[in-house]
Amino acid sequence: MTARNETSLSLDAGGTETLIEVRNASVTFDMDRGRSKVMDDVTMDIHREEILGIVGESGSGKSMFASALMDAVVDPGVLTGDVIYHPPDGDSFSVLDLDDEELKEFRWEEISMVFQGAMDSFNPTMSIGGHFEETLRAHDYNVADGMDHGRQLLADLYLDPDRVLDSYPHELSGGMQQRALIALSLLLKPNVLVMDEPTAALDLLMQRSITSLLANLHEEYGITMIFITHDLPLVADLADRLAVMYAFEFIEVGPCYDILKDAAHPYTRALLKAVPNLSSALEEMEPIEGDSPDPVDVPSGCSYHVRCPLADEQCRSTDPGFERVSDGHEAACFYWEDAREEITYTLSDREQEVTFDERR
Amino acid sequence: MSVDKDPVVTLEDVEVQFTNKSLIQTLRREKDVVRAVDGVSLDIHENEVIVLVGESGCGKTTLGKTAVGLQRPTGGSVKYRGQDVWDAKDGNGDVTVPFTDIRRSLQIIHQDPGSSLNPNRTILNSLSVPLKRWYPDMGVDEREDRIHRLLEYVGMKPASSYASRYPHQLSGGEQQRVALGRALLMNPDVILADEAVSALDVSLRIEMMDLMHDLQREFNTSYLFISHDLANAYYFAEKVGGRIGIMYLGKLVEIGAAEEIIRNPRHPYTKILRWATPVMDPDAAREAATEPPMRKIDIPDPKNPPSGCRFHTRCPKAREACTEEVPRLLPADGNGRSEVACFRSESDHAYWNSEPLPE
What positions does the domain ABC transporter occupy (chain B) (predicted)? Predict the structure, then answer.
């Protein structure tokens, strides 16, 4: 949200280039119980070559944001607003104006997406190598060159390329399938990789191995990554920036370091106290009171006011806009300064470093 | 935690093997044997919390099910208050505690609460089943009253409204509360909680674990809690002075007081799990290593586990000695707050003079 000005300028004051601009995007579903707004007037910039972590509870609208980026909101959902893509070479265009053929190209060659549960993304009757070749052919790429790149990607993800390409999906463990899927999604050298809970259903050791390999891939290929998860700690040391979603909109955006160090929105602060981790003191950890809101019946004013200890009349009646906290750090709260004083948390790792002492 | 009293459940040198014989394998006289649990001994005391941590396929669920009498071990013994569980089941020897009492005293809650509740039954009906079975003389009013009180215990108020709902009308957290309530109906001594919070949104996990702790005080239960996540394990165990046990390919490789395991891990595998636990301190995170610290990131095939120390194929500190001998679980030096199965904890072991394994 660093560039909220509505000009077409894709460079903001900090010199970071904007790759994707999301402007006033909303997604609505008509349901029996009424109209359900699962994304509410979201404006967001995605910077070139950053790793953006999008965090929120299940049902907060984060997956819908990912779908909106690629104009992939499923019927009967209706997407309004605009998504503007600024390719590194070439003219900017609106993603929502693309026709089917252009969209297909856009979705693999510019933005690629990885969902959780690789098993559902692979065809069980086709070998992993078959998936790679089919993808290259469908997009008229040179298969031999493409497979070389594919092998390299598999090796980057600590997989044995020959073994994996010859295997059928069921012959690989969950962690291997998910890594093979990430390699496949990077095969056509997209500029952006969007991952929606890419490591859910894997155990922690595999999750962390994958995030550390993603950091390496980011370093090596300069891909812009968007990592969507409910598991805040997972992206804490991966992301450059964090965007926190609550009730179908972003409520805080900023450099990951700044948010972890001293978050501004009361929800983010409560969330940091509520996720089990080894950096917080046990006595500080506590759940967030109350339930997350119903999409058909979002509270008026600030949607967090029903759960917020700082809420007053203004919060109940007026929806707060983004307020500037520091450079590139914004929070949608009238009282973020008070929140920092009244909701306290400490994150400190006394002995994080994994050391293997030699002989005692 | 009362260590002086007799344990509620005693596992001694427990071994669980699964054999998979398909028709073709039978014709070829082949057999696939997986040693899911291999020589594990563990005592669960009254009012104790033990968390088993490990990757998928390390045998933690099998060990848990064996501890609560749902899985028959292929070797070793499982005793409930001194009575061998499977002797009680088979009627061997003098049975001092009948199997039905044992079954009732050892309960389980699953990872996916939705699938453990019958979708066609209201919560009241689902919870009535075990009461009807174990207390056939209980009247309808008494039964309902007990269920309502229990739902209130697990924080589902108004109980009568929740009792009349179907599982799909509840959130994941609420379903897990019902599952917990159902386990508690029997006033059990031990509850096996298999990844009971893993399916919940991270922001709901502490609430669920706090509730389980409250109920432990109320009902005097012990928990055997299974998790792949060290952060959850630490919260659940340390908050009530419990223990954490680390499993790798069927073996217990380190066990001890939660604080000791987290702050002073000794087994290289425990250290790697510690690495895998995300760092939230932004200053520490900047320095965190990006490269996975183990030799291989994938777990070996459990059908064909490595020789010697099973972790040697991934261990960054493995030497030749590790491929030959199986390390025993021994008290770690110092305060006796943990036990570890690694030659690196034995200062006079041949390990120190053997060659490091090639990359």
Answer: 9-274
